[in-house]
Amino acid sequence: MSLFDTKCTTNIDLANRLKSVATDYKTLYVMGCFGAPLTQKNKDRYCNNHSYNKATDRTAMIKSATEDTFGFDCVCLIKGILWGWNGDVSKTYGGAIYKANDVPDIGADSMIEVCKELSTDFSKIEVGEAVWMKGHIGVYIGNGLAVECTPKWSNNVQITACNQTVSGYNKRNWTKHGKLPYIEYVQEEQEELILLMRV
């Protein structure tokens, strides 16, 4: 069974799926894109949907991407996973369905505002929490690391160090973090029990 076969319901689910997107799939930062494979049709659409993508260098990057590359931006990465993205290159949005699972289409700054238990203290951050700085958002995946989609560094979905130095990772200093309202926050032991009950 694939990691993406079921609905994303917990913080552990979300973290594991984001890690997989960062390590197992070809991705590119594309503004306004929530997981669409970069087919010719999608390239034409996204090169014209936003002023950021219309910039000559950005358009060139999008047009040169292979069709097995998936486009995301920072908040659309999170929404895409919660909307059911599963890496299906035959689907217009990689398997995601717009506004599915009662997750609204909101921006990074709006998404952090709907999070619970907002904090600027990163000493007790939990796996699956949103991490935020003005205009940008990612998700904490544990061990001092987060997943974010950014044009910085490798220009794609990537794992970065969260507010600390971790060898081998680029460091991002986020401003605050909080629990997304669309998933349940459980400990890893509980997650294993839930998976056993599903079998």
Show the helix and strand layout.
Layout: H1 11-24, E1 26-29, E2 34-37, H2 40-46, H3 51-54, H4 56-64, E3 69-72, H5 74-82, H6 108-114, E4 116-119, E5 130-133, E6 136-142, E7 145-150, E8 156-162, E9 171-172, E10 176-179, H7 188-198
Parallel strand pairs: 1-3, 8-9
Antiparallel strand pairs: 2-3, 4-10, 5-6, 5-10, 6-7, 7-8
The structural class is alpha+beta
pLDDT averaged residue by residue: 95
Q: Which outline best applies?
A: globular
> How many angstroms does the end-to-end distance come to?
11 Å
Number of strands: 10
H/E order of the elements? HEEHHHEHHEEEEEEEH
Largest sheet: 7 strands, mixed
Number of helices: 7
Low-confidence parts: none
Helix content: 25-40%
Arrangement of strands in the largest sheet = 4-10-5-6-7-8-9
Strand portion: 15-25%
Rg, Å, rounded: 16 Å
Describe this structure in words.
The protein has 199 residues and is an alpha+beta fold. The chain is 31% helix and 23% strand. It has helices at 11-24, 40-46, 51-54, 56-64, 74-82, 108-114, 188-198; strands at residues 26-29, 34-37, 69-72, 116-119, 130-133, 136-142, 145-150, 156-162, 171-172, 176-179. Strands 4-10-5-6-7-8-9 form a 7-stranded mixed β-sheet. The protein has a 3-stranded mixed β-sheet with strand order 1-3-2. The longest helix is centred in the N-terminal third of the chain and has 14 residues, at 11-24. It is globular. The termini are close together.
